[in-house]
Structures are given as structure tokens and as C-alpha cells.
Design a protein that fits this description.
Blueprint lengths: L6 H13 L4 H4 L1 H8 L5 H22 L2 H4 L2 H17 L8 H15 L3 H11 L4 H25 L6 H21 L16 H4 L4 H34 L7 H26 L1 H24 L3 H17 L1 H10 L6 H29 L11 H11 L7
Length: 392
């Protein structure tokens, strides 16, 4: 029997290991473009393929109430193993854009059994202090997401294939840790049937809707920002040609620092309230979107990197807090399904945002395009202001 006090660290480590699959393609994007003759717009398409797979996966998991009907740890393990294998498919030498998109799609599909299911496992163990627990958990997701960029920086002596093999190996390790050491939690209320109406039922609560709409606004900005961090650095370097950035290392740092912000946000929420801290983080990231064009034209690379690091913190700090509000405002027997539904819709929004920014960058070279990312936070802030979310 695993001691209760180390359950959360195990969930966190497992989540980190498995979510490194998420941006594995982005971490080796330059090599994929060169090796398989892809166009420069592939960055948007490959990121969206993972998001689309995740959306379809979460819809299937939500409709079938997978996380509520079956042992979440076993679901997590199975999806980790399958995700690891399809991630390795990108190594296949006969790949073209369509096959790589397919492999990334299925990676996203199986991540639907990892990210929201990991949150469900945490919610089954921690009713009190859930915001802090999810802060650690989403923090692990963030570092896992950033990890391929660091691997790319560290593996100059190896081929890009080593990055994909390493992330797949980590995913299998994470799944094994979860299924071997984390039994079903004491607050789990297993569901015996499929709730076909769950998709509509959860949104009947105005408290739930407010929390969910805040999360949707956050999603509009988050993954698009992460996907375009290397491009922002590249763009600044092209404008200020004396600048020499280590783009993989900086990309890792800018994304990974958000993990620290998630943990910090969880602790701040215990003092100031979950809703207040989520609102403030969303407001600050909205401001970052709006002022971002100004940072490209100023000459200090230190200020530019510091700005991106700050943006990397506030863009994600509210994520575990919104998930906490969603979990707290959903019925216990469909908590896992509710988290999965909200994830599904949120990530559908990310595809629109990523593709829109991708297209806008083709139409214009202006860095004003990043201001479009403020649209989501503005709408999210309106949703939070118009309704007092409980537990906030």
C-alpha cells in the first residue's frame, strides 16, 4: 500500500513523464521540416493535429464516461503505453505530412486518457486543497510540455529521433508508476452507467458555466502562445540581428517556468481565493497579449526574454484554478466526465486560435497579430465578472 503522503508526488511525476508526448513534435520541428520536406506552416498543423486528437479523445472518453466507470489509474496506464507507441511512429522513414499528422493526432487522442484522467485521480484523493494539488499536477504538465525543447538542446550529439524515443520511454515509465503505485482514491464515486446527458447536464449550473467559460478564454491564448514561443524568439532575432538566442533552451525555460507559476498560484489561492487568483492571472496574460507588439521593436533582448518569461508564468497560472472550480461545481458522480468535457471544448478552441494565428502570419509579417490572443482572456474575464463562482 502506497503511503498517502507520496501519492501526489507520484501523480505529478507520472503526469510529467506522460505529457512530454504533447509537444515532442514541436521540439524537433526543424528536423521534421528538413527530413520530410515539410513546409514552414507545418508547425501550426502539427500542433493542431495533437489538439484535434485530444478533442476527439476527450469527446469519446466523456460520452462513454470512461474515467468515471473504470479505474482511472488503469485507463491512464493503457493510454500512456498506446500514446508512447504512436509517438514513435514519427520516426518511420516513409513518413510524409499526412502520416506524421496521423501519428500526432493519435498521440493527442491517447493524451485524453492522461491529462484529464490525471486530474480526476488527484480529485479522488484531495477534496480539501484541490487547487494546490492541481497546481502541482498542471505544473508537471507544463514542464512535460516544455521538456522536448530541452531534450533538443541537450542532444546535439544524437539524432532528433532520440528525442522521440526518450519521450516515449518516459511515457511508459509514467504509466507504470501510476498503475503500480496509485490505487483508486478514497473520494472516488464510481459510476455504473453511461451518462448520455452528462454533456448537457453539467452546463445547467450557472456556477459551472462561469468557471468553464473562464477556462475556455484561457485556452484560446495558452497553447497558441506555447506553439509560437520559438517563432517569437526567431522573429526578434531577425529584427535585431546582433541578437543570438539559444532558441530550444529559451523555449524550454519560457514554457517550463509556468510550472512554477501553477504551484505558486495554488498556494496563493488558499489565501486569496481560487477565483480571485485565476481572475488576476487571466487579466495579466491579457495585458501581455495586448502589449506584445511593443516588445518586438524595443532593443533590449534581456527585456524581451524577461517579458516572455513573465507571460509564460501568467498564461498558465490560472489553468489548475479553473480546473479546480470546474471540479468543485460538478456533481461527484460525473466529476471525471465534467473535467473531460471542459477539456474537450477548451482544446477545440485552441485549434481555432492556432490556425488563425498561423494564417495571419502568412498574410502579414506584423507582430500585431499576437494581440488576437487577448480575445479569449477578455471573454473569460467577462464570464467571471458576471457570475460569482462558488468555492472562489
Amino acid at each position: 500500500m502506497t503511503p498517502q503522503k507520496i501519492i501526489l508526488p507520484i501523480i505529478v511525476v507520472s503526469q510529467f513523464c506522460c505529457t512530454s508526448l504533447w509537444f515532442a513534435g514541436n521540439g524537433v520541428m526543424g528536423d521534421l521540416v528538413t527530413t520530410f520536406g515539410l513546409s514552414e506552416s507545418a508547425v501550426g498543423h502539427l500542433t493542431s493535429a495533437v489538439q484535434f486528437g485530444f478533442i476527439i479523445g476527450t469527446l469519446v472518453f466523456a460520452i462513454l464516461s470512461i474515467a468515471d466507470r473504470f479505474s482511472p489509474s488503469k485507463v491512464f496506464f493503457l493510454c500512456a503505453v498506446l500514446g508512447a507507441f504512436v509517438n514513435l511512429g514519427v520516426i518511420w522513414e516513409g513518413n510524409g505530412l499526412s502520416s506524421i499528422l496521423s501519428f500526432r493526432f493519435f498521440t493527442g487522442f491517447f493524451l485524453a486518457g492522461i491529462y484529464p484522467v490525471g486530474m480526476k485521480i488527484a480529485a479522488d484523493y484531495y477534496e480539501e486543497g484541490l487547487g494546490k494539488s492541481l497546481g502541482y499536477l498542471v505544473g508537471a504538465l507544463v514542464v512535460g510540455t516544455a521538456f522536448p525543447h530541452l531534450l533538443k538542446e541537450m542532444t546535439h550529439a544524437f539524432s532528433w529521433k532520440a528525442v522521440l524515443m526518450a519521450t516515449s520511454s518516459l511515457a511508459i515509465l509514467g504509466g507504470a508508476l501510476m498503475v503500480g503505485l496509485v490505487p483508486d482514491g478514497p473520494f472516488r464515486k464510481p459510476s455504473q452507467k453511461i451518462y448520455w446527458s452528462a454533456f448537457l447536464k453539467v452546463f445547467q449550473s450557472s456556477d459551472f458555466r462561469s468557471a468553464a467559460f473562464g477556462y475556455f478564454g484561457h485556452c484560446w491564448e495558452l497553447y497558441t502562445f506555447w506553439a509560437f514561443v520559438p517563432i517569437m524568439l526567431q522573429t526578434y532575432g531577425a529584427i535585431h540581428q546582433a541578437t543570438t538566442f539559444n532558441i530550444p533552451l529559451l523555449s524550454f525555460s519560457i514554457i517550463a517556468v509556468g510550472g512554477l507559476a501553477c504551484v505558486l498560484g495554488g498556494y496563493l489561492a488558499q489565501t486569496f481565493g481560487t477565483k480571485k487568483v485565476a481572475f488576476m492571472a487571466l487579466l495579466l496574460s491579457c495585458i501581455c497579449c495586448l502589449i506584445s507588439p511593443l516588445l518586438f521593436v524595443q532593443g533590449s533582448e534581456v527585456i524581451f526574454v524577461a517579458f516572455l518569461i513573465f507571460w509564460g508564468m501568467v498564461v498558465i497560472a490560472d489553468s489548475p484554478l479553473f480546473s479546480t472550480l470546474v471540479a468543485q461545481n460538478a456533481s461527484p458522480e460525473i466529476k471525471g466526465t465534467a473535467l473531460t468535457i471542459v477539456n474537450s471544448i477548451g482544446f477545440a478552441i485552441t485549434i481555432v486560435s492556432i490556425q488563425l494565428l498561423n494564417e495571419m502570419r502568412i498574410w502579414t509579417s506584423s507582430n500585431m497579430v499576437y494581440m488576437i490572443l487577448a480575445l479569449g482572456p477578455i471573454l473569460g474575464l467577462v464570464a467571471l465578472v458576471h457570475k460569482k463562482v462558488t468555492h472562489g
